[in-house]
Amino acid sequence: MKKLISRKPLSLSLAGMIALGAGGLWLSATSNAADEPAKAASASATAAKVKPALTVTTTKATSGNLVIKLTANGSVAAWQEALIGSEASGLRIQELHANIGDVVQRGQLLVSFASEAVRADLALAQASLAEAQANLAEAAANAERTRALQTSGALSAQQVGQYLTAEQTAKARVESAKAGVDAQQLRMRHTRVVAPDSGIITARVATLGSVVGNGAELFRMIRQGRLEWRAEVTASEMAKIVPGTEVVVTAPGGAQWKGKVRVVSPTVDAQTRMGLVYVDLVPDTSATTAAKPQQATASLAFKPGMYAKGEFVMGSSQALTIPQQAVVVRDGFSYAFRLNADNRVTQIKLQTGRRVSNAQGDLVEVVSGLNADSTIVSSGAGFLNDGDTVKVVAAVKSANAAVKN
């Protein structure tokens, strides 16, 4: 009886505790259910308060024909360089008529030598010729009389032979004297050095008053003012280039000349494994005037010996392109930022190819990583990170705003 009485209060205590726990759980569940709409509203308000990281413009990749170019470097050189030397020996330079940078024409006088000694030698040779001709006249008269008396027996055969031989000797002396006169006349012509071809004087060794020897160099000249660009290309690139290929060569100062491939070298350097392609350069002569050709030549942007970059135009092909400013280079890789529907951007990795400039600006070929219908960030891409929220402004409006500002 005592055991039954002691268990009854314990059971009542357990039941009460269970009832209280159940009530607490019900109240907690009711409270959580009531707070769900409030939490959702708070999250929406927080999202609405996120500020864009940057105001950007967008663009889409476009497909079209892109010029295929092969870029190379090389030296600018003279097409042909002429050495102008002296053919007169032991003569003094009396006057110089050309200097470095002058544009000269074929036959134009460049150097005058002192000719007094040559004139004296020429006069002596002419006198010797006159004497030889007089002797020939006498010998010819004697030979004519000898022939008339040869059959009469008045002269011996020996005498006849002497007179006839004297005539032949006199003729030979006249020819020798004529050759001497020709030689002195040639020396006289050599006292005037003229340009062998039209071109530009690039060097002058001649000095006023100096006595030069036979064959001494006086001037150097670029024949016809023609320059060529010697491009250095690999063996595989040489196989793609043919004579007549158009080339655009850019000088270090930014000036550009057009040209055409004249010849491709038949050999490759064994040390560098590079071959040469010879390109004839065509300057822009619109500024050249007949009145001042020297000034026009001096203003040319290309000089022999300078190093220049050029592009061979190999044709065109279809390509997907985006503006240069939309490409971001990080850690050695190229990226672009694609715009999503929620105005967040996603960083995508690109494989780029050719680069070209046109009226719309600088374009980059996208080989892989982007579709033509993808919207990407154009301006401001370099300041973004993956997942940033942006504010999009139309490119046309931005341009108008820039013009107004």
UniProtKB/TrEMBL annotation:
Family: Belongs to the membrane fusion protein (MFP) (TC 8.A.1) family.
InterPro entries: MdtA-like_C, RND_pump_MFP
Phylogenetic classification of the source organism: Bacteria, Pseudomonadati, Pseudomonadota, Betaproteobacteria, Burkholderiales
Keyword Cell cycle applies: no
Classification via SUPFAM superfamilies: HlyD-like secretion proteins (SSF111369)
Source species of the chain: Undibacterium umbellatum
Lineage: superkingdom: Bacteria
Signal peptide: 1-33
Entry protein name: Efflux RND transporter periplasmic adaptor subunit
UniProt KW keywords: Coiled coil, Signal
Keyword Hydrolase set for record: no
Domain Multidrug resistance protein MdtA-like C-terminal permuted SH3: 318-381
Coiled-coil blocks: 115-149
Pfam families the UniProt entry points to: RND-MFP_C
